[in-house]
Amino acid sequence: MGTIRFEGREVSFAAGDTIASALFRDGVRTFSRSLKYHRRRGLYCGTGDCPNCLLTVDGTPAVHACQAPCADGMEVGRPHGWPSTEHDLLHVTDSLHRLMPVGFYYKTFITPRFAWETAEKVIRRATGLGPLPSTTAAERSVVRHVRTDLLVVGAGAAGLEAARNAAAGGTRVLVCDESPIGAAIAPGDALDRVRVIEAEVRAMPEVTVLDGHTALGVYEGLEVPLVADGELVRVHPGRVVVATGAAEIHPVFPGNDLPGVWLGRGAARMAGVHGVRPGEVAVVVAGTEEGLAHLETLRASGVRIAAVAVPAALAGRVPEGSGEVVVDGIVHDARGGKVLSSVVLRRGTQGKRFDCDVLVLSLSLAPRDGLARMALPGEAVELVGDAAGPDATPPIGHGGTVCLCEDVSLHDLQQAWDEGYRNAEILKRYTTTTMGPCQGAMCGRALTCFARERTGGTSPAAAGGSAFAAAARTTARPPARPVTLESLAAAVHELIDKRTSLHDVHLAAGARVDRSGGWIRPLTYGDWREEYRAVRERVSVMDVGTLGKFTIAGADAATLVDRMFPCRTDDLRAGRTRYVLSLDEAGYVMDDGLLCALGDGTFYLTSTSGGAVRTDARLRDLADRMSLDVHVLDRTAQWGAINVAGPHARDLLERLSDDPLDATTVPYPGFADVRVAGVPCRAVRTGFVGELAFELHHPRSSGPALWSALARAGTPWDLLPHGLDALELLRLEKGHVYLGQDTMPDDTPAKLGMSWAVSIDKGWFVGKRALERLGELPVTRKLVGLEFDAVPADVADVRGAPLLVGGAMVGRVTSAERSSALDRAIGRGWVRASEARFPSALEVAGHAGARARVVPTPFYDPGGERIRG
Amino acid sequence: MAIEIPCAFCGPRPFTEFRFGGELRSLDAPDPEADFARVFLPENPAGPQQERWFHVLGCRTWSTVTRDTRTNEVG
Questions:
Q1: Nearest residue of A to residue B18 by CA position?
Q2: pTM of the prediction?
Q3: Element containing residue A124 per DSSP (H, E)
Q4: Pick from B1, B35, B62: which is nearest to A624 by CB?
Q5: How far apart are CA A250 and CA A263, in angstroms?
């Protein structure tokens, strides 16, 4: 029908083939190597439960080959082993397993510490399920949310019946299954039954069928995410029916992981569905009627049966010609090299060896109840069908592999037990049993069974509550099936980089941009020192449309701003602006900004770019809790802002505006509504860069026109735009604090040296009580201005450096740059008081000979004459 | 998780649209000592709690919601 590419050669496949069946037909027997000992692993469960057939398909690792259908041209590979899965030299570890006991990593690589760096690389290469794809998927998985009354997980007979019955009563039902319906069932009565119900269910308008959708887990509030090729469906069901059926139990005996050892359904599917004989000669262990059916399927496909082990009750039902019947026989051990060669069946103390290349194990069914066990108490999640069946106890022999994924042997479990790990949960954590891709589907019950045998905790009455609890099944958690990072990422809200209306203008001007406070902002347009000089000596523009911008209106607007900010606001006259700190209830500085009084009881407020969302939330919270009649309008996205700064800022604006902009009409700190180049602007005088500056707040869509008008009119002064790099030095020379860079989460105004921004005597405001309380305590650390001596030429290198006095750390540098105006290295940093005295001379750690002196700020134009200009 | 928060303006919406505002507490306390307790010593009950939720990815309204901290049941 087609071909897939397997390790460089073509392998043809037939209709209905999975990757596993196509490869098996082609003669592949070793599908993977075990994690630690590199033992050969062949097809085993055939139901997507065990890890043995996890292959890399088209670059995606850990695909269940027994479930994935073949598609023409598919690239399939085995990631395990070195140099190859077939010839794996690392198999030597199997004979050295005494050197690699359980807890090997913890025990072996404690000292010397540096050895781990190398060892980890070696171990990473030797283990794992293959490398992750180095490129991201071309398209993100699509997420959709679906609400339904009932979600049925598993579209076998039980699940389809549950769906049909519920839908008949008018309930909206969603049915999901990880495979196409009926794909794993051999042609016959069972498949016919499923096909009949399937046809009925598909015809019901209340029912939606999503096959090829794998349920990942059951989450709180009842949400079940389903992953499929290219989409993630988040289902919000009223209730959930788990009809995931049962898996045949995984018995533990020496050799139980050899290629050629199969669980019954895997072997029967290979023979019955795909028409490939699992081998030539088989030993069958059948504990149930289903096991006898598998025996029939194998015989029909032409496999010779060497022996059958059955319980006494089924002894009479074994058909003639099935070799030797061993009543009540169990598997003692299995032996082989590349594949199984013989099996010893034991009854009591009597054993007999049978030569065979297939061992089919169909002992009993263990309910796949993992999804239901993830639900919280009281949540509407129920089990039906085989998933609701009685629990099963896998037989544990005298050796063998318990956990196929993590390669944990019975010997390892016993050793962990002897080391004192005497509880199923901590045995799990120490040995990593149940923690691999199958998430305990195979080994979970064997682990519990082991703990139960050792504690004697078969029931609460027999062994006391604690022993019973020690042997309880380990907690079930999502994900129930391997899931790609791509699918998980699809469920995460993507961080959106905000852009101002001038973004394209910046890019066209060659700006280097980066993320800052949730926005994409220009760092520099080329030479930031030149941009700095334009601000200090001539005139410059900067896009500050990222600032938080709010209109606060309504009858109680004045009350809100008065309660919100620690400074007086009641004396703020129309047309005037005030710098405001915003505190939280603990008195810590959260944000800062400018408050403009419009004169009609309405206010205009700006906040930092990164603090806009929080400022909005805090204003609304306070207004709501005080039941104020206030409207907070977030203008951040509607309005842009351009800061026009420099000694010639007014000269420039006067060329573009007929409105008066003199220091009487638009004083510092104040604002006026004016037209600039025909654009209505609120011109706010600011002092952040330390020069004469007008922030022009304007309708966002007018931004590019205003920007280019300013640029054109600025040519007589060689106007340059400036970015964040220049701003860093401009504000530092003025001693201004960058909230977040210079500050810590628990800074009071006093620690920042900004007590001038607090009127503690005014009426109640947010944080007032806390400041009163803290005012009684001495300030033991504070933010200071620093001047550096003998620091590296690139002063920025000392940002973050510890500050020392006599070798003891007393602080840290938060900002540092070489000041062009002062021709000195300056900065800001934290210092701690010792015996109520703050140090004034400090060493800068990590830079030999470098020193810092505590100096007053601002560094530049301390009187602020240039701002008022 | 699929908890729904009853927004005062929009009705029940997925909690992922909200910002959690912590437990509801009074705006002020009579003296600095009581204020310290108000700010730093939340009740943190194992059971129903009055708490604030901000519909940040929606109408930007604050709601006071009673949620059982043991079961996430919103009443």
A1: A617
A2: 0.78
A3: helix A113-126
A4: B62
A5: 8
User: In CATH, which superfamily holds the domain spanning B4-28+37-68?
Assistant: Folate-binding superfamily (3.30.2270.10)
- Is there a single domain that holds both residue A517 and residue A653? yes
Which of A165-173's residues contact partners 24+ apart within 8 Å by CB, and which partners? A166/A241, A167/A201, A167/A204, A167/A206, A167/A207, A168/A204, A170/A206, A171/A206, A172/A148, A172/A206, A173/A148, A173/A149, A173/A204, A173/A206, A173/A207, A173/A208
Are A713 and A598 in the same domain?
yes
- Within 10 angstroms of residue A217's Cβ, the number of other Cβ atoms is 19
Closest chain B residue to the Cα of A771, Cα to Cα = B32
My answer on whether A694 and A608 are in the same domain is: yes
Nearest residue to A240 (alpha-carbon basis) of A176, A156, A179: A176
ipTM: 0.97
Instruction: Say yes or no: A720 and A746 in one domain.
Output: no
* CA atoms within 13 A of residue A574's CA, in its CB half-sphere: 6
- With respect to residue A371, please indicate whether it lies within any of the assigned structural domains: no
For A190, residues 6+ apart whose C-beta sits below 8 A from its C-beta are A157
Residue A135: inside a domain: no
Cis peptide before A83 (omega within 30 of 0): yes
Among A680, A702, A731, which residue terminates a domain?
A731
| Contact criterion met (CB < 8 Å) for B2 and A586 | no
Q: A318 and A405: one domain?
A: no
Cβ distance of B28 and A769 shorter than 8 Å? yes
Separation in Å, CA of B45 to nearest CA in chain A: 20
- Chain A hits for B35, CB-CB cut-off 8 Å, are 769-770, 773
**Domain span at A147:** 142-246
Residues of B with CB under 8 A from a CB of A: 1-4, 16, 19, 21, 27-29, 31-33, 35-36, 38-40, 52, 54, 56, 60-62, 71-72
Angle, to 10 degrees, between the axis of helix A424-431 and the axis of helix A444-455? 130
The neighbour count for residue B62, using CB atoms within 10 Å, is 23
Same domain as A628, residue A516: yes
CA A772: distance to chain centroid?
42
User: Is pLDDT of B17 > 70?
Assistant: yes
How many structural domains is chain A composed of? Answer: 6
Claim to verify: residue A441 and residue A568 sit in the same structural domain:
no
Last residue of a domain, one of A194, A217, A246: A246
Same domain, A40 and A175: no
Q: For residue A713, tell me if it sits in a domain.
A: yes
Q: How far is A730 from A736, CA to CA, in rounded Å?
A: 9
∠ CA A707-A713-A716, rounded to 5°:
130
Does residue A851 fall inside a structural domain?
Answer: yes
pLDDT per position as a tens digit, A542-551: 999 999 999 9
Contacts of A234 in chain B (CB under 8 A): 2
Tens-digit pLDDT profile for residues A800-819: 999 999 999 999 999 999 99
